[in-house]
Amino acid sequence: MDLSSFYDLEKLTPTKATVTMRFNLSEPQKENQVIKIGTRVSSNSNVFFETLNDIYVQPGAEYVDGVFECTVEGSIGNNFTPGQINMLVDPLSWIASVANIDKSEGGSDIEDEESYRNRIHEAPEGFSTAGPEGAYKFFAKKYSSLIKDIAGSSPSAGVVNI
What is the mean pLDDT of the chain? Predict the structure, then answer.
């Protein structure tokens, strides 16, 4: 019997990593500039990140930051340390340099079988809204396949640390 359908559970789908990129301008611009949606950056690997929105540069700015998303799903886009993503794939003449200012994270692969089985086993805990520890574990693991284990505590009434 497939218990996953009884609990309305499906494997967690893969997600894409994100990272904040800083674009240093060659000189302050006299008029508005735009880093267009789809502009790509990379490290020396074959992993690319792109902006999902236009990034607007105001006159006089020396740099601008924007959030970029890996072009492929999965953990492959995770753990690029600050400064490691530093190649502008789609050049802009008024950009002097580009680099990530934080670690890329948030990319996850499709949920593995063991984690999926564990979530199915823990699913009945999600029926309670009274705040049992098992329910916190179930809902946290349901959020992301990056979460392998979790613990909850309640240091005071109305406060839960996960």
Answer: 85
Q: Are 138 and 123 in contact (CB under 8 A)?
A: yes
Pairing mode, strands 95-100 and 40-42: unpaired
Distances 114 to 5, 85, 117, 142, 145 between C-alpha atoms, Å: 17, 33, 5, 14, 11
Give the span between the Cα atoms of 72 and 75, in whole angstroms.
9
- Judged by DSSP in three states, 26 sits in coil
Q: Which domain holds residue 132?
A: 3-12+111-151
DSSP-derived 3-state class of residue 15: strand
Q: Give mean pLDDT, residues 44-66.
A: 95
Residue 79 inside a domain? The answer is yes
CB 71 within 8 A of CB 50: yes
pTM for the predicted model, two decimal places: 0.72
Q: Give the span between the Cα atoms of 73 and 67, in whole angstroms.
A: 16
Quick check: is 159 in a domain? no
**HSE of 150, CA atoms in CB hemisphere, 13 A:** 25
46 and 94 fall within a common domain: yes
CA within 13 Å, CB half, 128: 12
